[in-house]
Design brief:
The protein is an alpha/beta fold. It contains 14 helices and 14 strands. The protein has helices at 27-36, 60-73, 86-96, 103-114, 118-136, 159-194, 210-218, 261-266, 268-275, 291-304, 350-363, 374-387, 409-419, 421-424, and strands at 10-18, 40-49, 77-80, 99-101, 199-204, 235-241, 245-251, 279-285, 312-317, 328-331, 337-341, 365-372, 390-395, 401-408. The strands form three sheets. A seven-stranded mixed beta sheet has the order 6-7-5-8-9-11-10, sandwiched between helices. It has a four-stranded parallel beta sheet with strand order 2-1-3-4, sandwiched between helices. Strands 12-14-13 form a three-stranded antiparallel beta sheet. The longest helix is centred in the middle third of the chain and has 36 residues, at 159-194. The N and C termini lie far apart (74 Å). Mean pLDDT is 78; it is low at 1-6 and 137-154.
Length: 430
């Protein structure tokens, strides 16, 4: 469908430093992205500008320098560490006579390589199609040719219109299939909610060590590697926490600066595990000099997916790569754990992480004593047993049921709201 230059594995990298705030990208991270995609970097072309140029993104002279590097190294592809417009991609490809890929396209390519499950592959394809659909506009000249009314095309329909229609149809088909997957996930979440099992979701910048920590806690054997976006498909495992009981731990896809919006939209179903979690474990590579910027980048994505209000516990990982850092828990002024310093690789501080997680989840728990008259005992006793929140129960001389319950604060709020004012009369106030 798309008449583009074939991409290969020998690349010229282009990284431009901008004085404008918000345009800046990290060169080391870019090189890790390229390496993760399995591409061999032949040369890195760098430069500085105040703002992107309209035609080539870089200046005319820098564009000629890149084209010369392509010819010198016989490169297959030029990769920009920036988001290019469709017109800029087209202009650069004409000048370079090879495939040009921007940062968004590179990330999509890595995601396509990493996707393992049916859902993951569908989500990546959806993101790719949405990205490609913008590249049809002002694309190749053959797309404007008129076609006759034979086969799929209507009378006088241009190639561009046909391609757009085929893309729309495929996107609709994928969305329908993802909707079915989302319903299955929702059923699983509802079942966990009925069983009153809290969910703990791992989030963090890509390559922060989430999967290594996940494996250390659950012994799940999830694929973990020192590369960006090693994990795409979410994995759920059951863990046991003292004073809380069973909990579900979810490993999710890593975030990155300027994460393409197509990816955020496509991975909505996956990221819902993060939105609906009781607490987020925000894993941070504490050995990275830019860990504060990485934390801010993750917070930005959490805001974008409406998960910014979920309680968060920071996990400062990779202390084995740092000097004078010991496993420890940091508390706020109210004595609530806010940070835990650990090494997922070496297993240091994992017991402290469990302690902090238990304290945070336990603080979200409510303990109540109720005195229920015989007329209401059948209803509420069966309800509390179903919720698995009964601590102890006994009957007094008048036949009233004295029952102690412990449950999530949110569940108690829902219960009291649903049952109304009369339910408040059963609560024993010591």
């Amino acid at each position: 469908m798309f008449d583009r230059y074939e991409s290969g594995e020998q690349a010229i990298l282009v990284h431009i430093n901008f004085t404008q705030e918000g345009e800046w990208e990290d060169l080391n991270e870019f090189q890790m992205l390229v390496s993760s995609a399995g591409v061999n970097s032949l040369q890195v072309v760098t430069g500085s500008r105040q703002a992107p140029q309209v035609k080539y993104y870089v200046g005319e002279g820098k564009a000629q320098e890149i084209a010369e590097a392509v010819r010198l190294h016989e490169a297959d592809i030029v990769i920009f560490n920036h988001a290019l417009s469709p017109a800029q991609e087209r202009n650069l490809e004409q000048l370079m006579q090879c495939r040009v890929l921007d940062r968004t396209g590179l990330i999509l390519d890595i995601f396509a390589q990493r996707a393992r499950t049916h859902e993951g592959k569908l989500q990546v394809e959806l993101a790719q199609l949405r990205h490609i659909s913008t590249r049809l506009i002002r694309g190749w000249t053959h797309l404007e040719r008129q076609k006759g009314g034979i086969g799929l095309r209507g009378p006088g329909e241009t190639q561009l219109e046909t391609d757009r229609r085929l893309l729309r149809d495929r996107i609709k088909a994928i969305l329908r299939r993802l909707e079915r997957v989302a319903k299955q996930r929702e059923q699983g979440r509802r079942a966990r909610n009925r069983a009153e099992i809290p969910t703990v979701s791992l989030v963090g910048y890509t390559n922060a060590g989430k999967s290594t920590l996940f494996n250390r806690i659950t012994e799940a054997g999830v694929y973990a590697a020192d590369q960006l976006f090693a994990t795409l498909d979410p994995t759920l495992r059951k863990i046991e926490l003292d004073d809380v009981g069973p909990a579900i731990l979810a490993d999710t896809v890593g975030f990155i600066r300027h994460l393409p919006h197509d990816l955020v939209a496509a991975f909505k179903a996956t990221l819902q595990e993060t939105q609906e979690a009781d607490i987020l474990l925000h894993v941070v590579d504490a050995s990275d000099d830019r860990f504060r910027e990485n934390i801010a980048a993750v917070d930005e994505v959490l805001l974008e997916i409406d998960a910014h209000e979920v309680p968060t516990l920071l996990v400062m990982n990779k202390i084995d790569s740092m000097e004078d850092q010991k496993p420890r828990i940091e508390f706020n002024d109210e004595g609530v754990p806010t940070r835990v310093w650990v090494s997922a690789m070496e297993g240091e501080g994992i017991d402290l992480l469990f302690d902090a997680l238990t304290q945070r989840l336990a603080s979200e728990m409510v303990s109540q004593s109720l005195c229920i008259p015989p007329s209401h005992q059948g209803k509420y006793r069966s309800l509390f047993i179903q919720m698995k929140c009964v601590q102890q129960e006994a009957y007094d001389e008048q036949g009233n049921l004295r029952i102690d319950v412990r449950m999530q604060q949110a569940d108690w709020a829902r219960l009291t709201k649903r049952e109304g004012a009369a339910f408040g009369d059963f609560i024993v106030i010591d």
